[in-house]
Amino acid sequence: MLSLSRALGRRLFSSAAAASEGGASAGATASTSVARKAQNPLEEFFEVERSTSDDQARPHYGRGWKAAELRLKSWDDLHKLWYVLLKEKNMLMSQRQMLNSENMHFPNPERISKVKRSMCRIKHVLTERAIADPDPRRTAEMKRMINAL
């Protein structure tokens, strides 16, 4: 099973790298995740392999969301952001697990903590909204939904 996951991971990385070389534009920035059409649904769990040559600077990834920024978002926007962050967290943790199984170093481990911190802040903002709601039934329903996240 482990060898299957290694072979699958190598195949996914090599196909993703070939796709990015063929269709990537020169103006793409390294600070955002590379958007691509996944041919295999499992490809969404792995990030496109970036060049590790010395001539290119290490990519700079963005910061986490602040609670003040999240308080300005609507319920639907927070819900969508939660699932984007969940997908990002799953992708990063899958990549970390695959690299650890091959005794390779996981680049930028701080990204996982940024995503987790942002997810905690979303829960905090939603809990604040639930507590501030005057209707106790709605508050209880909102708290159940938040705890299910």
Estimate the mean pLDDT confidence. Answer: 75
Rg, alpha carbons: 19 Å
**Tally of strands:** 0
Pattern of helices and strands? HHHHH
Class by SSE composition: mainly alpha
Number of helices: 5
The level of helicity is 55-70%
Protein described:
The chain has 149 residues and is mainly α. It is built from five helices and no strands. Helix 3 runs antiparallel to helix 4 and helix 4 (110-132) runs antiparallel to helix 5 (136-148). Residues 1-8 and 15-35 have low confidence and may be disordered.
Explain the layout of strands and helices.
Blueprint lengths: L1 H22 L43 H5 L3 H27 L8 H23 L3 H13 L1
Keywords for this structure?
single chain; 149 residues
Short description:
The chain has about 150 residues and is mostly helical. The chain has five helices and no strands.
